[in-house]
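Technical annex, item 7. During the second reporting period the consortium partners agreed on a shared format for inverse folding records so that results from different sites could be compared directly. Each record opens with the tokenized structure and is followed by the designed sequence. A conforming record, contributed by the partner at site C, is shown below for reference.
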């Protein structure tokens, strides 16, 4: 399971949304639960939005703590953000039972000093390691590493891309959505990756 803090950018107007999401698949195409961002995704279309993973944690607590640091009162006052409320264990989230007991002794997550300590407790080397892993596999602009591209093409080498039903077959083999398949093939099969060879 991945506990992520992500950023979604509207490519037409530059507005951003920062959220937290728990997932077993980093390619699940989850695009946030905020009312304003959902409205704009319907208005502009998903293709006009870019999603980036800022952090990946090993537990829910760290994920929500980081979201609460980033999505604070000052952040939500900015007119260029979609977030309507501060991050962390918000109105629709329930702290895990074991976390509640810890909070009763350690103090509220809203405590600014506690937030500072959490931020300082994540070593730069760990942040760089997470960023490198994400960059290699997903990239800040949803790019893939050369190794990942080669691996995917090796997996689908026996599929005839000119024959009806190829999208379903590639989707099943790679474990990605039909939209992701089409983007992958368009970007890398016809695109720059093979032109370089």
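Designed sequence (site C submission):
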């Amino acid at each position: 399971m991945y506990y992520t803090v992500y950023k979604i950018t509207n490519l037409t107007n530059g507005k951003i949304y920062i959220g937290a999401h728990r997932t077993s698949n980093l390619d699940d195409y989850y695009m946030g639960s905020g009312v304003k961002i959902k409205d704009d995704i319907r208005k502009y279309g998903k293709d006009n939005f870019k999603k980036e993973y800022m952090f990946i944690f090993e537990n829910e607590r760290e994920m929500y703590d980081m979201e609460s640091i980033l999505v604070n009162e000052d952040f939500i006052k900015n007119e260029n953000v979609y977030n309507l409320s501060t991050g962390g264990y918000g109105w629709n989230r329930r702290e895990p039972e074991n976390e509640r007991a810890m909070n009763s002794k350690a103090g509220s997550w809203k405590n600014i000093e506690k937030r500072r300590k959490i931020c300082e407790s994540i070593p730069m080397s760990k942040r760089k390691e997470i960023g490198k892993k994400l960059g290699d596999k997903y990239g800040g602009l949803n790019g893939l590493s050369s190794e990942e591209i080669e691996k995917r093409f090796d997996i689908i080498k026996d599929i005839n891309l000119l024959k009806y039903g190829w999208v379903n077959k590639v989707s099943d083999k790679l474990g990605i959505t039909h939209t992701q398949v089409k983007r992958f093939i368009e970007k890398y099969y016809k695109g720059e990756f093979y032109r370089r060879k």
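The chain is about 50% helix and 15% strand. The beta strands are 2-10, 16-23, 49-57. All partners now use this format for quarterly exchanges.
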